[in-house]
Design goal:
Order of helices and strands: HHHH
Radius of gyration: 30 Å
Largest sheet: none
Shape: elongated
Number of strands: 0
Strand content: under 5%
Helix content: over 70%
Number of helices: 4
Distance between the termini: 63 Å
Length: 127
């Protein structure tokens, strides 16, 4: 039996950063609703400010750094993709449409043939 390892946050500092980011998000939501009487600018300002601090705090943690590295690697891999030309895209789209039409006709023919065999020949039902 093979066991897979699950990555966890190891250091206390990372746990504190992630907990702090979560508390800042919750605090932003609480501040948004508590500042309802102060006006929309105060509500949105408090929410956006606390969310921005939470995002900065998250990205300073090890999990945030791994997320940024994953994003960079994904972007690097996406740049390696050889995208088809317009002509190739149109040709492949035409092939797909043609295949769909052929399969639709095949399935319709199969359905009608089975209907004829079952209802007319075997059961003898005439419509």
């Amino acid at each position: 039996m093979s066991m897979t390892q699950v990555e966890t946050v190891n250091t206390g500092a990372d746990k504190a950063k992630l907990a702090g980011a979560a508390l800042l998000v919750v605090g932003g939501l609480v501040a948004y609703y508590l500042l309802a009487k102060q006006g929309a600018y105060a509500q949105w300002g408090a929410l956006l400010a606390l969310l921005a601090v939470a995002v900065v705090l998250f990205f300073t943690s090890e999990s945030g750094k791994q997320l940024v590295a994953y994003g960079r690697d994904s972007w690097r891999e996406a740049r390696k993709v050889v995208w088809p030309t317009r002509k190739e895209s149109l040709q492949m789209t035409g092939y797909v449409f043609a295949f769909v039409v052929v399969m639709a006709l095949f399935l319709w023919g199969t359905d009608k043939t089975l209907e004829w065999v079952i209802f007319d020949l075997i059961l003898g039902w005439k419509r």
